[in-house]
Amino acid sequence: MTLRLRIPRSIRLRGAIYRVRTSRSLNRLETMATFDEKSRTITLAHGLSLRQREEAFLHEVLHAVFPNGVVPSKVEESVVEGLDEPLLEALRQLRWRRADGK
Ligand SMILES: [Zn+2]
């Protein structure tokens, strides 16, 4: 059984709500996803495979969780690229349960 992330319509990160949307105007061959801090929006290209969607989503989440200046912007892309796949691999291995024991 392969587990897949359920991509939410919005996600709260660092106390702010970010909208998650899919757009046909992004060319998935060039850019699978974008993150815009100003509008607090993660945009995924239309037509991605499930695996591409979850990787792209997690990649943009990582951009969103780095507050400005924590990682110098010049290296942020390579840091995020280095983290997205291993983090997804780690998340896939986790089993979540309710804190109330139900
Ligand atoms: Zn990126």
Topology:
Layout: E1 10-13, E2 16-23, E3 33-36, E4 41-45, H1 50-65, H2 73-93
Parallel strand pairs: 2-4
Antiparallel strand pairs: 1-2, 3-4
The structure holds zinc ion (ZN).
Report on the structure:
With 102 residues, the chain is an alpha+beta fold. The protein has a single domain (10-93), classed as Zincin-like. 36% of the residues lie in helices and 21% in strands. It is built from two helices and four strands, in the order ββββαα. The protein has a four-stranded mixed sheet, with helices on one face. A hairpin with a 2-residue loop joins strand 1 (10-13) and strand 2 (16-23). It is globular and about 40 Å long. The mean pLDDT is 90. The protein binds zinc ion. The site of zinc ion (ZN) has 4 residues, from helix 1 and helix 2.
Biggest beta-sheet profile: 4 strands, mixed
How many independent structural domains? 1
The first-level CATH class is given as: Alpha Beta
| First-last Cα distance | 23 Å
- List the secondary-structure elements in sequence, H or E: EEEEHH
CATH architecture tag: 2-Layer Sandwich
Strand order of the largest sheet: 1-2-4-3
Gyration radius (Cα, Å) is 14 Å
